Amino acid sequence: MDDEEADLREQIFHNNVREQIIFLLLFILLYLFSFMLIEKFRRRDSEDYFTADEDEVKVYRISLWLCTFALAVSLGSALLLPVSIVSNEVLILYPNSYYVKWLNSSLIQGLWNHVFLFSNLSLFVFLPFAYLFSESTGFPGCRGLKGRVYETFIVLALLGVAMLGLAYVISAWLEGDRSSLDALLNLWTYLPFLYSCVSFVGVLMLLGEYCKDNESYSGIAVR
């Protein structure tokens, strides 16, 4: 009995290690592809990106790394459903194959959990931090990279409080009941709703930019 339990724990450990290695390799591939994609479309005619100030160069590099991470997560979320469908079909076609046993439900569920976690971090933490960090100047008396980090964290915290409060008010207004302080402190109750609201606003902004570009192109064509 003890040997069977030891073998079971060992198998679970090896499966967990294998899944984490697969997750890491997939993330490295997506990150490299995202970095090459950003480098291809990055502006190269602006002097702000190639300034002689060492702090500006560090700020730009950190913002670039965070944006690359967010793009890799977004690509992973876009590929998650096709990968799940293809892996399920492969398991149905070859149920007893030794080479596809690693494509199990635990691996797919782990991919979904990781993508959900990092997509929330990218949307609510990394991307706002990258934008605020690149636009920060530091507090009076505390300039430099350290002052810009302090300013970014404070502004990001205030923005997070404002967004959570707004989502709490909208959620309570739509549900039509009186929310208590416990519901306010329990962020997981309306975090998916906040995620949906931010995503919806992002889609509207993207459509607005697309319509604006089409109007500008139409005006140029008419001229």
TrEMBL record:
One of its GO terms (cellular component) is plasma membrane. Keywords: Membrane, Transmembrane, Transmembrane helix. GO terms for molecular function: transmembrane signaling receptor activity. It comes from the Eukaryota. The chain crosses the membrane at residues 20-38, 59-81, 111-133, 153-174, 186-207. It holds the Pfam family LMBR1. GO terms for biological process: signal transduction. Coiled coil: none annotated. Belongs to the LIMR family. This is Protein LMBR1L.
